[in-house]
Give the backbone structure.
Amino acid sequence: MTNALMKVLDQTFAHPSGKLGEFGGKLMAKMNAPIEEQVVALAQPAANETVLVIGPGPGVGLFAAGSRAAHAIGVDPSETMLTEARQRCAALIADGRVELRHGTANATGQPDQSVDLVISVNNVHFWEDRAAAFAELARVLRPGGRLVVSITRWMLPVTDHELVGEAESAGFSDVRASLQRYSGLTATALQLTARVDA
C-alpha cells in the first residue's frame, strides 16, 4: 500500500481524527453495532457492576454496557471518537452511568482491581503491546472479574493459540477462544473469554 493510503486508513480507523475520523466513526457504528450489542449481551454486565470498554469508538457498545451496568467507563485514544461516544451516550453520562476517558488498553488510567468486566470489540489489532495490554487489563479487574474480547478473525495478526497464550501469561485463567458469527455479518469473529482468579 502507498504511504498516502496508509495515512488515510490510519486517520479513518486506527487513530480516527478530523473528517476522515468522523466518517470512520459512522462506518464503525453501523458495521460494529451487531457485534458490540451481542458481545455485551454475552458478557452479561450485572446491574451492580462496573464495566470498562476498551476502544469504544463511537460508543455503540458503551451505550449497551451503560444501559445494563451500574457504571461503564469508555477508554479511547481518539478525541474524535470520544466526542462521538459522548453524543451517543449523553443521557447515560448525565445520569452518571457512563464516563469517557482518554487512554488505551496499555494505559487505562484505572486503579487496581476497580472493574468487574472488561470488553473489547475489534481493536486488539491496534494495541501497541498486547502482552502489556493483557497485563494492564488483569491489573484493573477485581478478583473473579471477566474479560471478553471479540475481533473479526482476519484482523488478528496472531493465531488464536498465540492470543490465548498471551492472556494466560498475563495471569488470566479459564481462557477460552471460539469462533462466532454475528447476525448481519459475513466475517467470522474470534471471541476470547477469560477471568481473574478470585
